[in-house]
């Protein structure tokens, strides 16, 4: 049938293009009420009293809930989150109460009438200040929190997690280096800005069963963590995940679901719907943490990197639940795709009085690579070695090298050398860029490499169930959430290919429901195709074995002599001895009516025998189930007068092992470029001195649109198949935005000799950097402007 | 008002937005919302044939007028030629913004059957696709225009 | 602009749709501050969703024929009624031919869909620092026709914007139309704007030039906006360019004069220093393009 490597649209495209796809945003249950949050206007304040009496008098308001009523702690790695703020508000926008009403309008009238008495407390917004011994403490009860053993919050401080990666002896390495470079790098807070706002409909039944519809990537984690936190049996909770309008890591772990379920109970066991406003997505929902890196790298004169020392400080805001793992992942990815014998990285997630933070696409790798891939180019200048050549001399060697965590790379993990060269070639590396036509503009080329694997607990599992229907169509039952990445479609292709049936006969449902869907840990971390794919292939093997078992009895041969293709099972070499699958998948009935076998149900699973916990002091171990190599190259034009960067030519390359569906792989590459360029050039959440998010909307928080697309964008797919991966395929959903920012910044240096160390590279920030480092460029451009100026 | 060729009658308050009335009272869910401020374009509908952002239109302003949403492009379950090309090109990922882009592209092509890439980019400047499928969307529109020029389309 | 609350619904109000200008004027004379005008609604609804404005009445003026004028009268100039949307202005040939700065400004404003609803008068009445509309209107010596039950008065554009979200209309007045004076024969005009990490302008300029190569007859009108609450027409520029001197020197002097009058602000969109620099860049570009090489 040949579906492996075949480009085809996602299986739900008809629904999406006609607008008939249902998202949690669209879900309504009979008798449903609407919830609206009351949020704190203070960045740090004790909650003295909440008076809900006036709000209760607003027509249509059914109930008002406050944090005191819900004494539960939520979290996947660190249980630091209240359902609603209980004793104090920790940031401007922290939800402190919720109004439930018959209509959204009534709920919005209701929140105006909730009166909260606050006693402001000293604030701390700078994570470095928060690290000082006399800083106000965000989480006094930290020692009571449930903490996953992989993480180290430090009670009595604002440190939500401290991770250390220790390999070799970095101080000796630095001392023995012939050339050292240093740098400080910054990334502001960034919002996922998925288009479908977080939407939850929950119904707490009088019998204690809770039904939840939610926009999520992780129905099973949500169910489990909610049961854990609320002390409810797991099977009493049913989480349903319909098509999700964009996740990007912002709809993972556990979110607002427990709140909405508890509100449903509070409102007399009626269903309740909560949809966050865009402003609340910025100021109340978790966003990506602010990041600062101080790094020092040591090289030999020939370019071999011998030491890398880094300190990452993450501004993790009021709740740091998922960020503690982002902090860890940034730490163990600090040396990227290079072989470095001496590494020390200390990565800290620090509580401050800014909004809660959580995972976002890339999970610490965009952060670690911003520092690393910039330092490589900074070193290249000092070493007088070409940036591509410098990278080639340091790339991890499959089968030989060890990563920073001491993992020896598989032989079939990829071909980073070919990848780096393909990126370079695509942008004409080595050939100077064309001269910019207009005065004051300079062109430059830059590239950056990256590597990533899924950040998941070593025992994060996946499973799959394959069920046949009478007409040999198949229900492919997988827990893979569908938020645009296309994995379910690729998995259906794998199933069709393996079973020898048309892919149109493989049905992947639209809703993942924890009471009937096959379990997978979460759909995050670029793991889905690999973990769920292995489970699917395992289920296919199981189904085929069952088919062959039945057929062997009828055709009177051993099962290994049989083959399955074209909706038939037949004897190898003598295909005229065959049975149609339709006569086997529900058991086989002999002419006289006796029947053998039964409905075929293929069962598959995935667990990783190779990943381990990491050493608590050195971070050594095997943290991920695979690594994907990637890279980005770009040619840009900088206008030194305005600071504007125009992307002329962009390319991204990934060694995905096998592109099950090249159309979808290219879609990820292009989509990741867009998000990467957007974060690199435009996006920043801005906070004022009182901790308010000053730009909580999509005009002042600028997101890339069609008009900012590069002139040209190329996708390169390399395929070094990984033997333990489904058809050799590795994931790439997050890889696609890791190398973009550093590639652009590297190109800026190539164009105008200005080193950029902070994001975003907005026109003003670029102009300012030029002013500081090369004011003569601006002077010259201003002079030319006056002379001939019209451009 | 007429919604997708069907006369509909609903009771509204003055302060209700066209977006919310279409979704909640008329029950047409293809019209999504994401920012409620006219920044993202996801609430696009055709009002008397012209694309507007329905989060910034009062429902009462649409009284007696004609509203079309993405469903109108594919009555009877057959995708329009433009929708088919969107699907073939993979011009969607999570799909949440897709109805608004399809509707806007449909309108653009009806007034400018052979747009340049620059004109397409400008026309889409009021819409956001966070999954970043702009390249595929632009390709789909250009492909439709090309096929239309070559007379392969029945035109719509 | 950015702060305020997270409301998705509008506050309660009553919607009225007067059929004549007189009816509308009587209504707002009666209800004054409790009534807000609805044309495109882009600005009004954004303010209302933030609860910055909660009128008791919303007066939809789109059915009023007198407010739908769009007329270029040759020597009398261009008149645009309050209910004319921006796409209509883009389609109106005389604007593209003679009032190019206005055409350029509108074509860069928001997006084609919002322009099906927004009006230029709504834009200037919003009076936020980053609105682009006032700047090109300043170089065409525009007057705002403010109508009330007592009659009409003309407010010069350079007096119309008083501060952040503050315009010169009285509570019982409605901006019925704007009137642009006809530019000199064979003049050329343009509009430039600049953004940084926001969709909104941090600086914009408009300039008009006639007789570029004959100093004594040369006209150079110049205005800027978005760097502070109040857009400004810099009259001195006209006198500077009438002098006989090498053009680069005249440009230098014009820039000095512009910078003297300019008070760029620092806000979430940009810092003052950058605004000041970009004002110079845009102004020089504008002068250069209009004067030729």
Describe this structure in words.
The complex is a heterotrimer of chains A (791), B (156) and C (293). Chain A has 791 residues and is an alpha+beta fold. Chain A has 18 helices and 31 strands. In chain A, helix 13 packs parallel to helix 14 and helix 15 crosses helix 16. The mean pLDDT of chain A is 96. With 156 residues, chain B is an alpha+beta fold. In chain B, a hairpin with a 2-residue loop joins strand 3 (44-47) and strand 4 (50-53). Chain B starts with a strand and ends in a 7-residue tail after the last helix. With 293 residues, chain C is α+β, with helices and mostly antiparallel strands. The longest helix of chain C has 20 residues, at 272-291. The model of chain C has no long low-confidence stretch (mean pLDDT 94). Chains in contact: A-B, A-C, B-C. Chains A and B meet through helix 1 and helix 15 of A and helix 2, helix 3, helix 4 and helix 5 of B.
Task: Please outline the helices and strands.
The complex is a heterotrimer of chains A (791), B (156) and C (293).
Chain A lengths: L12 H6 L14 E7 L5 E7 L1 H5 L3 E6 L6 E2 L6 E2 L5 E2 L5 E7 L2 H10 L1 E6 L6 H4 L28 E9 L2 H7 L2 E9 L11 E6 L5 E5 L4 H12 L6 E5 L15 H10 L5 E4 L2 H6 L6 E10 L5 E13 L5 H10 L9 E10 L13 H19 L3 H8 L21 H11 L14 E12 L9 E7 L5 E5 L8 H13 L6 E3 L3 E2 L14 H28 L6 E4 L2 E4 L2 E7 L5 E4 L5 E5 L1 E6 L21 E12 L5 E11 L6 H20 L30 E7 L21 H13 L10 H11 L1 H14 L3
Parallel strand pairs in A: 1-14, 12-13, 16-17, 20-21, 30-31
Antiparallel strand pairs in A: 1-7, 2-6, 2-8, 3-7, 4-5, 9-17, 10-15, 11-12, 11-14, 13-22, 15-16, 18-29, 19-20, 19-28, 23-24, 24-25, 26-27, 29-30
Helix pairs in contact in A: 9-10, 10-16, 13-14, 15-16, 17-18
Chain B lengths: L1 E2 L2 E2 L10 H8 L18 E4 L2 E4 L12 E3 L12 H9 L8 H14 L5 H7 L10 H16 L7
Parallel strand pairs in B: 1-5
Antiparallel strand pairs in B: 1-2, 3-4, 3-5
Helix pairs in contact in B: 2-5
Chain C lengths: L13 E3 L4 H11 L3 E4 L3 H8 L7 E4 L9 E3 L5 E4 L4 H6 L1 H6 L1 H9 L11 H7 L7 H6 L3 E6 L2 E6 H4 E3 L2 E2 L6 E7 L7 E7 L8 E8 L8 E7 L6 E2 L2 H6 L5 H15 L10 H20 L2
Parallel strand pairs in C: 1-3, 2-3
Antiparallel strand pairs in C: 4-5, 5-10, 6-7, 6-10, 8-9, 11-12, 12-13, 13-14
Helix pairs in contact in C: 10-11
């Amino acid at each position: 049938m040949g579906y492996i490597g075949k480009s085809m649209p996602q299986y739900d495209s008809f629904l999406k293009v006609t607008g008939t796809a249902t998202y949690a945003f669209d879900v309504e249950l009979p008798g449903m009420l609407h919830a609206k949050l009351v949020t704190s206007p203070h960045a740090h304040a004790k909650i003295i009293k909440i008076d809900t009496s006036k709000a209760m008098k607003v027509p249509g308001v059914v109930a008002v809930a406050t944090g005191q009523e819900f004494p539960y702690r939520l979290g996947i790695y660190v249980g630091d989150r209240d359902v609603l703020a209980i004793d104090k508000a920790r940031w401007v926008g922290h939800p402190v109460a919720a109004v439930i009403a018959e209509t959204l309008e009534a709920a919005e009238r209701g929140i105006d009438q909730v009166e909260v008495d606050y006693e402001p407390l000293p604030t701390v917004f700078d994570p470095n200040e928060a690290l000082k011994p006399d800083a106000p403490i965000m989480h006094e009860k930290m020692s009571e929190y449930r903490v996953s053993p992989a993480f180290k919050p430090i009670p009595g401080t604002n440190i939500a997690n401290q991770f250390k990666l220790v390999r070799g002896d970095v101080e000796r390495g630095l001392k023995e280096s012939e050339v050292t470079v240093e740098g400080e790098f910054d990334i502001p807070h960034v919002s996922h800005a998925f288009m479908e706002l977080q939407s939850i409909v929950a119904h707490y039944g009088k019998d204690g069963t809770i039904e939840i519809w939610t926009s999520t990537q992780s129905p099973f984690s949500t169910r489990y963590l909610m049961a854990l936190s609320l002390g409810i049996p797991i099977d009493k909770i049913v989480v349903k995940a319909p098509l999700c309008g964009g996740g990007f890591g912002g709809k993972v772990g556990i979110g607002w679901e427990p709140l909405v379920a508890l509100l449903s109970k509070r409102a007399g066991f009626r269903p309740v719907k909560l949809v966050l406003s865009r402003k609340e997505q910025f100021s109340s929902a978790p966003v990506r943490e602010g990041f600062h890196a101080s790094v020092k790298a040591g090289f030999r004169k020939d370019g071999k990197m011998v030491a890398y020392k880094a300190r990452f400080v993450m501004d993790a805001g009021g709740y740091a639940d998922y960020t503690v793992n982002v902090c860890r992942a940034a730490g163990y990815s600090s040396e990227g795709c290079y072989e470095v014998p001496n590494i020390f990285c200390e990565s800290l997630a620090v509580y401050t009085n800014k909004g809660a933070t959580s995972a976002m696409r890339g999970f610490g790798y965009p952060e670690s690579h911003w520092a690393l891939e910039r330092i490589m180019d900074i070193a290249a200048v000092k070493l007088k070695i070409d940036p591509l050549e410098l990278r080639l001399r340091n790339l991890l060697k499959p089968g030989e090298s060890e990563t920073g965590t001491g993992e020896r790379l598989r032989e079939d993990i990829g071909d980073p050398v070919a990848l780096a060269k393909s990126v370079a070639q695509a942008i004409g590396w080595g050939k100077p860029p064309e001269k910019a036509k207009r005065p004051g503009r300079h062109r430059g080329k830059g590239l950056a490499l990256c590597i990533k694997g899924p950040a998941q607990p070593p025992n994060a599992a996946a499973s799959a169930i394959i069920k046949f229907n009478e007409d040999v169509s198949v229900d492919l039952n997988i827990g893979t959430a569908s938020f645009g990445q296309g994995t379910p479609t690729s998995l259906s292709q794998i199933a069709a290919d393996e079973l020898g049936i048309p892919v149109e006969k493989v049905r992947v449902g639209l809703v993942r429901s924890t009471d009937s869907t096959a379990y997978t840990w979460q759909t995050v971390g670029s793991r889905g195709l690999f973990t769920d794919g292995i489970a699917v292939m395992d289920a296919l093997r199981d189904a085929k074995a069952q088919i062959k078992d039945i057929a062997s009895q009828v055709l009177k041969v051993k099962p290994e002599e049989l083959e399955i293709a074209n909706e038939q099972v037949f004897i190898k070499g003598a295909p005229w001895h065959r049975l149609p699958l339709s006569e086997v998948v529900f058991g086989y009935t002999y002419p006289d009516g006796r029947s053998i076998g039964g409905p075929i149900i293929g069962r598959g699973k995935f667990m990783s025998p190779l990943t381990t916990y990491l050493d608590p002091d050195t971070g050594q171990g095997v943290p991920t189930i695979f690594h994907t190599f990637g890279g980005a190259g770009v040619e840009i034009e900088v206008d030194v007068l305005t600071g504007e960067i125009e992307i002329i030519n962009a390319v991204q390359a990934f060694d995905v092992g096998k592109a099950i569906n090249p159309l979808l792989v290219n879609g990820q590459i292009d989509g990741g470029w867009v998000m990467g360029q957007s974060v690199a050039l435009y996006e920043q959440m801005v906070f004022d001195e009182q901790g308010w998010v000053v730009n909580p909307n999509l005009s002042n928080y600028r997101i890339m649109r069609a008009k900012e697309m590069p002139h040209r964008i190329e996708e390169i797919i390399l395929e070094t198949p990984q033997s333990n991966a489904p058809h050799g395929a590795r994931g790439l959903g997050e890889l696609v935005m890791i190398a973009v920012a550093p590639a652009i910044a590297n190109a800026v240096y190539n164009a105008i000799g200005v080193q950029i160390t902070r994001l975003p590279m907005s026109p003003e920030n670029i102009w300012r950097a030029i002013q500081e480092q090369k004011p003569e460029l601006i002077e010259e451009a201003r002079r030319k402007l006056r002379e001939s100026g019209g451009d | 008002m007429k919604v997708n060729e069907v006369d509909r009658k609903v009771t509204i308050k003055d302060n209700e937005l066209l977006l919310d009335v279409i979704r909640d009272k008329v029950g047409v869910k293809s019209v999504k919302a994401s920012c409620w401020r006219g920044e993202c374009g996801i609430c696009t509908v055709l009002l008397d044939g012209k694309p507007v952002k329905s989060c910034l239109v009062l429902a009462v302003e649409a009284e007696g007028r004609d509203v079309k949403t993405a469903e109108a492009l594919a009555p009877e379950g057959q995708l329009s030629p433009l929708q088919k090309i969107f699907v073939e090109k993979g011009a969607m990922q999570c799909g949440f913004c897709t109805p608004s882009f399809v509707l806007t592209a449909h309108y653009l092509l009806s007034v400018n059957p052979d747009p340049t890439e620059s004109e397409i980019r400008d026309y889409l400047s009021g819409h956001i696709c966070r999954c970043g499928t702009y390249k595929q969307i632009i390709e789909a529109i250009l492909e439709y225009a090309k096929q239309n020029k070559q007379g392969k389309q029945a035109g719509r | 602009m950015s702060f305020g609350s997270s409301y998705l619904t509008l506050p309660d109000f009553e919607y009225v749709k007067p059929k004549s200008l007189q009816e509308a004027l009587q209504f707002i004379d009666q209800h004054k501050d409790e009534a807000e005008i609805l044309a495109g609604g882009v600005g009004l609804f954004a303010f209302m969703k933030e609860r910055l404005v909660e009128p008791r009445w919303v007066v939809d003026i789109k059915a009023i024929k007198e407010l739908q004028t769009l007329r270029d009268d040759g020597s009398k100039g261009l008149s645009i009624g309050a209910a004319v949307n921006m796409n209509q202005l883009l389609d109106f040939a005389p604007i593209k031919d003679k009032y190019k700065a206005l055409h350029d400004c509108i074509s860069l404003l928001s997006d084609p869909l919002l322009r099906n609803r927004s009006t230029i008068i709504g834009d200037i009445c919003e009076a936020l620092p980053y609105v682009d509309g006032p700047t090109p209107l300043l170089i065409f010596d525009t007057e705002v026709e403010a109508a009330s039950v007592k009659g009409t008065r003309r407010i010069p554009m350079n007096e119309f914007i008083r501060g952040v979200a503050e315009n010169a209309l009285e509570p019982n007045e409605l901006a019925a139309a704007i009137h642009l004076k006809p530019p000199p024969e064979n003049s050329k005009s343009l509009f430039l704007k600049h953004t940084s990490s926001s969709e909104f302008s941090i600086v914009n300029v408009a300039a008009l030039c006639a007789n570029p190569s004959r100093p004594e007859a040369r006209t150079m009108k110049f205005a800027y906006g978005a760097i502070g609450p109040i857009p400004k027409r810099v009259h001195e520029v006209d006198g500077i360019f009438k002098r006989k001197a090498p053009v680069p020197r005249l440009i230098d002097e014009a820039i000095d004069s512009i910078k003297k009058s300019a008070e760029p602000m620092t806000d979430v969109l940009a810092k003052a220093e950058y605004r000041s620099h970009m004002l110079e860049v845009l102004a020089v570009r504008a002068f250069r393009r209009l004067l030729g090489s």
